[in-house]
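[Q] Does anyone have a clean structure-token version of this?
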Amino acid sequence: MYKILLVDDQPQYIEQVLQALHPRAQDYQLLFANNGQRALDLLKELAIDLILLDWDMPVLNGLETLKLLKSTVTFANIPVIMHTGVHTASKDLQQAFELGAIDFLRKPVDSTELLARLENVLSRQAYMQETIRLESEKAALCLELKQKELLHYAIWLEEKNGFLKNFERELGAFVQEQVNAEVRRRGQFLLRQLQREIQAKSQWEGLRNKVNKTYENFLRQFEEKHPQLSVGDLKLAALIRVKSPNQEIADSLHIALDSVSKKKLRLRNKLGFASSADLEQYILDF
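[A] Here you go.
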């Protein structure tokens, strides 16, 4: 059952509305307030689905009440239908709509029109509330899935890093045990390669976390918008986002300084920018 608050100081109009709603008494419960202030007091105590608001009333008139309703978070989403027999000019209606009224009724009330307006407004309100609920559930589900994804990724990353560290130790011990100089030399070379890879992975994860934390998940959003980019492209974008100079980019990516321009060119081509300046400005503004 919908609860409707009728705010009006005219007993004859209240009686008209009561008679109009009588055939639908099982659907609508009608509550009363004879001025705007009394209506606001009632709203603090009751959950109301719709307000029928008169224009001319003592203490607090309709427009003043409407302003207060729409500026109060608790009441702002309650639909308000204005009704009056005097203020029916276009400028009056426009003023009421600008303040947040959802519809308008002229006095004296027509039972068929009143019921039609109530049903229309309440149906729209129910649809909007259901849409908001579904969107909220969707957002909560997406967040839950993302949290699970991040948890699984963190577990996988920890296991992978643990495996690499163990392999590094095992390989180091193996190299130390070798008598053959060539085998030892080759083993030391592979060990250095592995150590560089572990260091690079660690630096990338640190950079990724720093960039996402500082720039509101920049990398996650950038990767979602440009799924064609490689991990190397994302690393370069992250370094550009934190305004790293070319030498720092080269050191971070373990490449020669002149290779930075080549990597930027490849990234430019993938994203469709004519110059490095355009590419960097896009990343900085993203």
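[Q] Thanks! Anything notable?
[A] The chain is about 65% helix and 10% strand.
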